[in-house]
Amino acid sequence: MLKKLPLIILLIISSCSKKPQMIPQSLGELKLDKFLVGKEAREFINQMHVSGMVAGDRNEVGFYSLDTLKAVLYISKFKSSEIAEQKLEQMLIKIAHGGTPFVLHNQFRIQNRDIFLVFGMGQSHYIYADKDKLIWLSADMPISLVVLHSFLKQKM
Asked: Is 105 in contact with 117 (CB distance < 8 Å)?
């Protein structure tokens, strides 16, 4: 039994890491329906981009809903805040130059964060860097501000 103890501990730790650590269980009244963490989240994020490898060292994606209203939260954690800021800047440059399904609409400041609002694919998208994390929050327009404010109130 003692010889198997390290294996049992490893299995317990690895199963615990399959739960989201960065995304909340709800955004306003929207509830978390499904989530991706680790390799699944990284692959999902990278598949959405033509350029390939854009995901961070740790990644989580949360899918939220209430009736017909939907939101998706993408969080990529990088080695440093500088890398997160670089990734944000690269994304905004691509959006500004066109060739993506998004249109850069506005920039505003909330809680000492520069948040960029883009529109596309029928949703509002809020993008910003928070320390070593890059956040992309997509939400149906009728609930997008409520969802954003709910997320900003929560601790990550």
From this structure: yes
What's the CATH number where 94 sits? 3.40.1000
Q: In whole angstroms, what is the distance from residue 138 CA to residue 144 CA?
A: 8
9 within domain boundaries = no
- CA dist list (Å): 76 to 16, 45, 98, 116: 19, 9, 23, 16
DSSP state of 154: S
Q: Cα 20 to chain center, whole Å?
A: 11
Quick one: pLDDT at residue 52? 61
* pLDDT < 50 stretches in the chain: 1-2, 4-16
CB 15 within 8 A of CB 6: no
Structural domain total, the chain: 1
Give the closest residue to 50 by CA, choosing from 119, 116, 117, 99. 99
pTM of the model: 0.85
**What pLDDT is attached to residue 14?**
43
